[in-house]
C-alpha cells in the first residue's frame, strides 16, 4: 500500500511537467470513473503544508527538518494519492520564499492558478498570528486567485476555499473573531479586484464557498493538535457528516481524461494564456472520446475480420444478425468506457463517428457477400441458360425463356441482398442495377450463340435437303432442269426462312439483323446449287455417258431392256432418243439459269415458258438468259 502513496514531483522547479500522469494513476489503480476528488494547498514557505497533508491523507510528502533551520523544502508542485481514498493531493511550493527571489510572484500565481483549475478544495494554510497581515496572509495571491476564480466561475467552474489557521488558541482569539477578520479582508479584496460587468454588484459569497478549520500548536499543544488534525481529516472522509467537505462537488472530468487535462492546463497557464476551463474539458472529452472510439473499434476487429473471410466463401444467412451483434458490442464498449463523458457534445459526436466507422468497417463484408451472391446466382443463370438453350441447337421463344430466367435471378438476388443489407447507405439500387447488367451480358452472350447456332443449323439443314434434290435433277438432264432446281430451292427455302424468322423474332432481332441472316442463308442455297453445277460440269462427259446408258439401256421403270424382243428399228429409235436427251442436257448445261435470290421463282417460271415456246418455233436457237440470271459458260 505504501508504494501507492509515494509522492512524485509533478512540476519541477523550472516549471517543467515531469511525470507520465496516466502511468501515475494506473499504478495507483485510479484509471476511470468520476468517483475521485482533488485537494490542493497553498501557503507561505515553512508553514507545515506538507506535514498536514501527510497527516490528513497518509501521503509522504517531504517535510522540513526544523532543527536545521527554516528553508524551502517543497520545490515546484508535488502530487500524491491519499492512502484510504481516491483523493489526488497537490502540495505547492511555499510562497514568499527567499530562494525564488523576485521571480517568486510569477511562479506563485502560475502554480496557484494551476491548482485552482484542478482542485475541488483549495486549502489556504496560514499562521493564526498572520491574520490581518498583507503578505503573510497571502492576500496578494488571494486577490489574484479570486480574480481568476471569478473568471472560472463565469465559465461555470467554482471552488471551495478552506482557510486552515495554524497554532490556533481559542483563549487568545476566538475563531469567530478570526473568521470575521478574514471575511472582512475578503470583502476588501473583492472591492479591489477587477470584475466582469455582469458581476459588478455580486458578493463574494455568491461565488466562493469559504470555510474555516483550525489546528492547535503542534509543539506546545501536541495532543490538541492531533485531535484537531483528526477532526479536520474526518471532514474529508465522513460522507455522512454535515460538514463533509466534498459534499455537492459536481464532477464532470473522468479520471481517464484527467492526465490530458492536467498537461493542457499547465501548458496554458505557463504560457500565460487565458484559461478556459470548459474549453479545456471539452478538449479532453474530444481526445478521450476519440481514444475510446478507437478502442471500441479495436474490440470488434477480430469479429469483423472473421466475417470478412467467411463472406468471401459462402452466403451467411445470419449476416445481418452478426453485423448487428458486432455493432452492439462496439457501441456497448464505447458507452461503457465513455459513460463519464455522456453529457458532453464530444461524446455524442464521437458516438456518431463510431457508427459511421462501423458502417465503413462492415461495408467490405457486405461487398464480399454481394460478390458471392452475384457469383452464385450468375452460375445458376448460366446453368439454366445452358439447359434451356443447348449448344448447337437454336430454339424458339428465346427472349421469353431468357427473361423468365433473368427475372428469377433478379428476385433471388434481391431477396439475398436484402438479407445482408443492414444500413440504408449500402445502396441496393445501384448493386441490383449492376447485377442486372451482368445478367444481361450473359443473356446477350447466349443470344449471340443461339444466332450462330441458327445460322449453322440452317445451313446444314439446307445442304442436307437441297443438295440431294439438285443432284437428282441434274442427273436426269431434263430440259426444264433449271426450272426444277429453282422450284425445289424455293420450296425448301420458303419453309426454312419461316422457321428462321420465327426464331429470330423470338430473340428480339431487328429487321436488319433478320435480313442479314436470311441473306446469308439464301447465299448458302445459291452456293450449294453452284457447287453441284461445278461438280457435274467438271466431269460432264462421264455424266452424259451415264445418262445415255440409263436412257438407252433401261426402260421407264429403270429395268434393263430386253433387246431380243425388239426390232432393229426400235433399237435405233432408242439410240436416237438417248442421244437427243444427252444433246438437250448438254444444251441446258451451256448456261446456269438460276437467280441468286431464291424468291425470284415466278420470273424464272415465265422465262422457262418463253424459252419452251421459242424452242418449239426454232429448235436450233439457243435461249438467251435474262439479267436476273447468272449466265455462266460451262465450256
What can you see in these coordinates?
It is a single chain. It contains 18 helices and 7 strands. The chain has a 7-stranded mixed beta sheet with strand order 1-3-4-2-5-6-7, sandwiched between helices. The model is unreliable at 1-5, 67-72 and 618-635 (pLDDT under 50). It has helices spanning 21-27, 49-57, 104-118, 139-154, 175-192, 222-237, 258-270, 277-298, 301-313, 319-337, 345-388, 398-420, 428-476, 481-506, 511-538, 540-553, 568-588, 601-617; strands at 8-11, 37-43, 77-81, 87-92, 121-127, 160-166, 209-214. Strand 6 (160-166), helix 5 and strand 7 (209-214) form a beta-alpha-beta unit. The protein is rod-shaped and about 180 Å long. The chain is α/β, with parallel strands linked by helices and 635 residues long. Helix 9 (301-313) packs antiparallel against helix 10 and helix 11 (345-388) runs parallel beside helix 13 (428-476).
Q: Calculate the terminal CA-CA distance, rounded to whole Å.
A: 125 Å
Strand content: 5-15%
Query: Which runs of at least 5 residues are low in confidence (pLDDT < 50)?
Result: 1-5, 67-72, 618-635
Characterize the overall form.
Answer: rod-shaped
Q: What spatial order of strands do you see in the largest sheet?
A: 1-3-4-2-5-6-7
Integer average pLDDT = 80
Helix content: 55-70%
Taken in chain order, the helices and strands follow as EHEHEEHEHEHEHHHHHHHHHHHHH
Keywords:
disordered N terminus; alpha/beta; 7 strands; 18 helices; 635 residues; 7% strand; seven-stranded mixed beta sheet; disordered C terminus; rod-shaped
